[in-house]
């Protein structure tokens, strides 16, 4: 069992390195090394440099991250869509099928729940869920693997 886990750990690092290189070649130059990108992400292709993802952030499968809008047009050239850079901080977890809309800023150490639709800025150290996403928990901390730290519970034993 330990050999299997060790092999998976080594292979996952290789896969993440290959994904990072692939996204870099596609123009996603603002994804920090150390971000964990799962398969089947849907990242905005109109302006790939407009997506910023911090180190140690895990983006789960089928997450959608946008940084342009077709409905709102560029005021200087109405033929072009409005570009709005999207920022995701460090040590965040973006859940499966979450949608991050253009121009949103997500702080550091944030959990975005599965299928949440984030349409406005999210402060650091919180959990957001729902459509539209709303803060349901504050003062959280994440580790470098995008896992929420559970504070130590006081002992109930009295000696």
What's the quick description here?
By secondary structure, the chain is of the alpha/beta class. It has one helix spanning 2-25, and strands at residues 36-37, 42-43, 51-53, 58-59, 64-65, 68-73, 81-83, 86-88, 93-94, 99-100, 105-106, 110-112, 117-118, 126-129, 134-138.
Structural description of this entry:
The structure is a single chain. With about 160 residues, this protein is of the alpha/beta class. Helices cover about 15% and strands about 25% of the residues. The strands form 4 sheets. Strands 1-4-9-12-14-15 form a 6-stranded mixed sheet. Strands 2-5-10-13 form a 4-stranded parallel sheet, with no helix packed on it. The longest helix is centred in the first third of the chain and has 24 residues, at about 1-25. The radius of gyration is 18 Å and the shape is globular. The mean pLDDT is about 90.
